[in-house]
Specification:
The chain is an alpha/beta fold. Helices cover 42% and strands 14% of the residues. The chain contains 17 helices and 14 strands. It has helices at 19-29, 42-48, 60-67, 78-84, 110-122, 139-147, 170-175, 188-201, 215-246, 250-258, 279-292, 296-323, 351-361, 374-380, 395-399, 419-424, 441-447, and strands at 8-13, 33-38, 72-75, 87-90, 127-131, 156-160, 180-184, 210-214, 332-336, 365-369, 389-391, 404-407, 431-434, 450-453. It has a 6-stranded parallel sheet with strand order 3-2-1-4-5-6, with helices on both faces. It has a 6-stranded parallel sheet with strand order 11-10-9-12-13-14, sandwiched between helices. Strand 4, helix 5 and strand 5 form a beta-alpha-beta unit. Helix 11 (279-292) packs antiparallel against helix 12 (296-323). It is elongated. Bound molecules: nicotinamide-adenine-dinucleotide (NAD) and uridine-5'-diphosphate-glucuronic acid. The site of uridine-5'-diphosphate-glucuronic acid has 20 residues, from helix 9. Nicotinamide-adenine-dinucleotide binds at residues 13-19, 39-41, 44, 78, 91-94, 111, 114-115, 133-134, 163, 165, 167, 277-278.
Length: 464
Amino acid sequence: MYTEQFDKHILCIGAGYVGGPTMAVIAKNCPQYKVTVVDVSEERIARWNSDNLPIYEPGLDEVIAACRGKNLFFSTDIPRGIKDSEIIFVSVNTPTKNFGIGAGMAADLQYWEKTARQILEYSDSSKIVIEKSTFPVKTALAMKRIFSSVKNGCQFEVLSNPEFLAEGTAIKDLEEPDRVLVGSMETDSGRRARDVLVDIFANWVPRGRILTSNIWSCELSKLVSNAFLAQRISSINAISHLCEKTDADVEEVALAVGMDSRIGSRFLNASVGFGGSCFKKDILNLVYLCRFYHLNEEADYLEGIVRINEYQKERFIRNMINVMFNTLSNKRICLFGFSFKANTGDTRETPAITIARGLMGENAEIVITDPKALQNARIDLQDADPRKVSFVEDPYDAVAGSHAIAVVTEWDLYRHLDYQKIYDSMVKPAFIFDGRNILDHRRCFEIGFNVYPLGKTALSHLEN
Ligand code: NAD
Ligand code: UGA
């Protein structure tokens, strides 16, 4: 085992959007612990060890700079990491399965199973293994079964500790979480392991915010939290369409509804659709679980959240086609934003991919601008005809010569551009489709744009 003078040795397997920031915040708040993050990807680890971190997250650079090389380490040596640690977080990816039974619905568990087998293979002392990734209910049981498949004298206690951070605000979410959830088996050894993990978080999280529960409630709570958040977005997005038909204003409706303290005001922004690596996959995972237990009514209800989200993206594209005289052929359309939300470079499941592909399918020419996501956008659209898509950092350069702007991501910078200058550089009639309702629509209309917000009456100079 190790020789350095640290109270605990913590390992995290999986150096992604969750593993990296989460371990950095533990290291920052617990200088008495050594925290190591390992990954199979040499490139990712090399970037964690450089000044060019593999993910963009506000505040992350500072936390990494404060701890890296002191009590925070990034490595590809997984066996060494396992041997040297008594506490192991598993933070590998759990994407939707795209093959075999449950394809398109169930979680693909090959990554964590490989990890569990590696933990078993390289352990020469007992470990607490923590599910940090989002897993289907009962994964802990499967893990436990793998750990007990070989008797090597080591005890493995499995805990669930789902992560609730949102990208773009990850550091704040980790520093000041609404709650930390720790689920354990209801056994003496389970409860002892749970107390160890609770004590780690108690270094900076008030104990009243650290919730303990049985392990199945814990696993399920994570999936349900994401379903509830996404459900709010699909609800307001469904209402946005009705607002457009009735001359109601979805922002006024959301304000009125959200002021009811039982409902609350957050997550009621109508949008072109939610994206991100988790909402869709976690809801589909819940749907799959419900169907597995023959809860078909419940599965249909949850599936509706995803269905409305797909519809909202399609509806956005269809509206653009209708408004722009039913043809987009050879028209140039500039996408403002490509990441799935502001303040991240992450483009996983971003609505921008669907919109870009939908517009290219109509023979439009797409220009994409984004302050942080162009590198990922190029990868996401690498199969597209290069004559139909271009990537331009400067929004003024990107938009020049375009027929329309589609606001896809709510980056603050798009609120503050010079829209007169932009209008002057565009083909007329010039259109704005604000898929995030972030622009000053009246002002844009007065400049001369035909403005199509979401869930509000359009402001158009075109004759009916
Ligand atoms: P990610 O893809 O960014 O990172 C996962 C990492 O695990 C990758 O770097 C991959 O190389 C590595 N990995 C895979 N198999 C491995 C193995 N056998 N050994 C070592 N490394 C391995 O994923 P993420 O966004 O960090 O998500 C991880 C989990 O956390 C998922 O279950 C996700 O649902 C959940 N989650 C994500 C977020 C988020 O905001 N991204 C928030 C909460 C929970
Ligand atoms: C979400 C949850 O908020 C986190 O609590 C959770 O840990 C995480 O998923 C996860 O499990 O991965 P994240 O996807 O990073 O976090 O970002 P959100 O802020 O939830 O936004 C998700 C999507 O919904 C984005 O595309 C965003 O633009 C969209 N959204 C959000 C809306 O369209 N309207 C809103 O009112 C809020």
